[in-house]
Amino acid sequence: MKDILGPQALTTIADAGAAATPRFDRAAFLTAASDGLDALSIMERVRHIADALHPALPTDYAAALDVIGSMAPRLTHGFQAVAVTEYVARYGLDDFDRSLDALAALTRFGTAEFAIRPFLAQDADRALATMARWTGSDDEHVRRLASEGARPRLPWATRVPALKADPTRAAPILETLKADPSLYVRKSVANHLNDIAKDRPDWLLDRLADWPNDDPLTAWIIRHALRTLIKQGEPRALALIGVGHGAAVTVRNFAVEPSTVHLGERIAINAEIVSDTTANQPLVVDYRVHYARAGGKSAAKVFKWKTFDLAGGEAVALRINQTIRDFSTRRHHPGRHNVDLIVNGQTMATSEFDLLAD
Question: pTM score, two decimals?
Fold first, then answer.
């Protein structure tokens, strides 16, 4: 992924700067940005490019922002713009309000969610007050930045001490956006709330219980915000989406096929769920894989499977495939992998497969 900000991206940024103003030192930027680039990760490249912009831009910060504003529409990938917004984060903390205005203008070209974090770290109250005003913007990108930039556990981003101490600090922003017409914004609000669920689940459940579940836009946010707690089988979370804890069903033929695999091969998980009642039942079906670890230990991860209504007396056959491959966040080890079937928060059946050493 780091190649998104490779040599071609540097050339595009340099060309954008030169087209924006003759004051942009194209050669200086390319020399500084290319130096040591190969060894850097994607976010390290973002910071490296921002630093390389500094000697190429006017020394006056306001003038530099004018150039960056003219460069942004000429960029060809969102991550190029992310690198440009990072210049504001690294060199604009002493001009707080002007910098936040610049980030609001730049975020439509490539999200400024990472660049706003240093401003939140420096003065959370001041930054959050500005971000709260952004919730009234006509631009969905700006409204999303208000939510996404203040996420307590924003991936790839630096942690903000004030949000770590109290992950609910941005609650007024989320309250304003709880029925936003933009799916782009609603996804951010749901992800923000899901971050809070990992640290303050009771706060989240209390807050969402007061939200209007009869509004389809808000109901969408509630369902996606509760996904971590639903995977954990939290009864209050299930109740908020209209699902009881547990279900009147029988599980048949729950199995993982094949029973032995090598890394890179695929398993299929099968189950038949049979209603034990004449009433219609909303079901949330997930599965949990207990991944083998070194020393005979295991680590469990819950995966979403299907959410549906099961009519009284009916049966549904389910099947899902999963390829067993390594990720940067999950490395596989040979050994027994137990698999649980979870229906409405309760484990209803167990199977297994063995991962063989190559």
Answer: 0.90
